[in-house]
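Known limitations

Files may contain more than one protein. Parsers should not assume a single record per file. Below, a two-record file is shown to illustrate correct handling: read the sequence, read the token line, then continue until end of file.
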Amino acid sequence: MKRMQAGFSIITAIFLIVVLAALGAFAVSMFRVQQAAAALDELGARAYQAAQAGIEWGAWQVLRGPGTCAAATGNLALPGSLSPFVVSVTCASTVHTEAGNPVTIYRLTATACNQPAGACPNPAPGADYVERQVQGMVEQ
């Protein structure tokens, strides 16, 4: 009777080793996914800040002289931690009359991305592509 029970603990040990190895592999896989998501989240925040910088640049172009909407259109290369991003800024203007006075409204659109194809947005992006677009209006 002792001979038949001798292999039972080895089967239990092998089962526990397999289960623990599967749990370890799952934990490593989840860690990688979490790290990739955090990296993309950071890139998204930086892309948003780059787009905000594009709006500020466009507003400055418009406000430094009347009728400079065309000067507010272009691509920006940013320094520092935003250097992987290129910002494409476009401007459109409309003229309205308020209380008998002409008022020009400038609509600025800034699109920032980290893999530009000359400009943003990129029609064929890679795996880690991040893009953010911000719009703003300036009245003059």
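...continuing to the second record:
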Amino acid sequence: MSQPIMTYRKLVMPGDENPAKRLFGGRLMQWADEAAALYAMCQMRTKSVVTLKISEILFKNPAQSGDILEFWTKNKKIGKTSLTVECIVTRKKIGLPMSTPKAPETETEGYLGDPAGIILSCEFVFVALDESGKPTKHGLTA
């Protein structure tokens, strides 16, 4: 439907880790929800969106303190009041300049030739709300 764009970056800090010295899954999901919501707000041209559903969450590889994570988002499905956003989280290759991010290659399950580079994949469904909190048409077309 569309090419993924990098919506968000986060640095994993020691306070984000579990006792196994890996990034907490819940923290990663919070960040993914924020990234996908930012994308949905821009696409639907409103700040009044809510998360309706999160699809199957696949934690493909661990992340650790010091990793820079990139959150890639794209339209998956457009409804009358909803938008399904695919979110893929990758580990940034430090050797690449900040000005030239490269989208994940999801068909090959790798990222820049590194299968360990994809950290998470999932889909979010967001609904646009009117002033009274009811679902409203957002104006996007498929």
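Parsers that stop after the first record will miss the second one. For reference, the second record is described as follows. The two ends are 8 Å apart (CA to CA).
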